[in-house]
Amino acid sequence: MTKKRADRQVNFGDVSIPRELDYPRPVKVGALRGVHGVSSDAVIVVDAQTLLVPNFSYDGEAPGTSH
């Protein structure tokens, strides 16, 4: 997951999607875990253009964020 700002781009977490993934059925891959409280349950690859990220969480405390 990347948050874009006008002056920079920051990566808060990522998940690997296997090259040999068997489309078109949905497949669960790893959960998101990252800085600033980024987390989720296992990400579901629904199809080549759709990711479902259940129970996504982010604490909103990254530098440059406003409340």
TrEMBL record:
PROSITE patterns, alphabetized: DM13
Q: Sorted alphabetically, which InterPro entries does this protein's record hold? A: DM13_domain (IPR019545), Spindle_Org/Thrombomodulin (IPR052126)
Q: Which UniProt keywords apply?
A: Repeat
**In which domain of life is the source organism classified?**
Eukaryota
The keyword Repeat belongs to this UniProt entry's keyword annotation: yes
Residue ranges of every copy of the DM13 domain listed in the record:
25-67
Q: Give the matching PANTHER family.
A: PROTEIN SKELETOR, ISOFORMS D_E, SKELETOR-RELATED
This protein is called: DM13 domain-containing protein
